[in-house]
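In practice, a research group might receive sequence data for several interacting partners and want a quick structural hypothesis before committing to experiments. The following worked case mirrors that situation: the sequences arrive first, and a predicted assembly follows.
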Amino acid sequence: MMATVLPNLKLQPKIFAVRDGVVWAQVVAEGPDRFLVHARITGDGKSLLLIPVSLSSNVKSFTLRAASTDSTNGTVRMVSDGSDKITVLSSQKPLQSSPVFALGLPAAGRLSAGGTLNGTIEIALAGVADGGTKEISIRVNISQNGTSE
Amino acid sequence: MINSAPIMIENGRRQVFYLIVCALALCMPGCLCAQSLTVALSGNLVTWTNATGNPLAPGSATNNGSAPIVVTTAWSNLNPGAAKPLTVWAYFGSASAALAHLSACGAVCPDIPSSAVELRINGGPLSPINQTGPFGAAGAARQIFSVRIVGSNKTGIEVDTLAFNINLSTLPNLPADSYSGTLFIQAQASP
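A structural hypothesis for the assembly, expressed as C-alpha cells:
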C-alpha cells in the first residue's frame, strides 16, 4: 500500500498599509501560495510596506521567498504574530540576494510546521534619486523546504 | 514337509500385517486424499496518490483506495468437524505503523495506524483493521471470512472482494509525506 499526503501551503495577503507617502502599492493574489506586489516609488525617501498575511502549512518546514523582476533596492522580512505550532525565523534580506527570507519550522515539541499563522511581511524600499518615479514588482510565495521553483 | 512349516509361518505374518493395515485404515479419516488450502489475490497494490487521483486528505473520514482486491480462497479435503473453522485474515505487522512514513525524519514523524485502515468486505460496512487475530500484531487484523468445515464443504472455494479506505478523521494534522505498508492475507484451517 502506498499513500501520499500532498503538501498544502497557502499564503494569502490581507489588506496592507503603506507607512509613508513615498510609495503607492497594490497587492494581487496569484494563487493560493503566492501574491504579487506592484509598487510605484516616487521621490527619494525610504518607504516601508506592511503586508498582513495569513499562511497555512502541512509540511515539516517551509520557506518564504521574494523575487523582484528588476533591480530593486530594498529588504524583506516576515514578522510572525506568534503560534504554538509554527516558528518563523526571518531576518531582513536584500531583495537582490537570496530569494529566501523566512523559514517556517515546527514549534517546540511539535513534529511538523503544520497549522496556520498570521503575520506581516515587511518590505522596505529605497527611494528614487533625483525625485523620479520607479515601478517595481515583487513576487512573494511559500514553498516546502527543500523544493525550489 | 520340511518346507511346509516356514510357509505357514509366512502366511501368518501376512495375515497380521493385513490386520494392522485394516486397523489403521479404520482409525484414519474417511479419505486419504491430499489436503490443500490456497489464497490468491487479484492484485498486489492499492494506492492513495496524486497519480491515481486519490491523495490522502488529512481530517477526512473518506479516502478510498485506488482499486479493490479480490481474494480467492480454495480448499480441498479439509477435515470435517475440525475444532477450528477455516478462516481468512487480513493483517499488518504493526498496529501503530501500518503505513509508515517514508521521509528521513526519524521515528518522531507520525505514521498511519492499522485502525485507520478500513476494509469493506463484499460491499458490507467499512470495518477498521483493529482486531487481534492469529496472525500479525495485536490489534492489527481483520477477519475476512470464516466457515466451519462439515462433510458437504470439505472442498470449496470462496471469493471475497475487499475495498479499502483510510479514515483520517482522527488524524487531521497528518503531515505531507509518503506512507507505505504491507497488508498480508492469510488463511488457516485445522489439518
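Before designing any experiment, note the following. Chain A touches chain B at residues 1-8, 58-60, 111-112, 114-115, 144 (CB under 8 Å). The mean pLDDT of chain A is 87.
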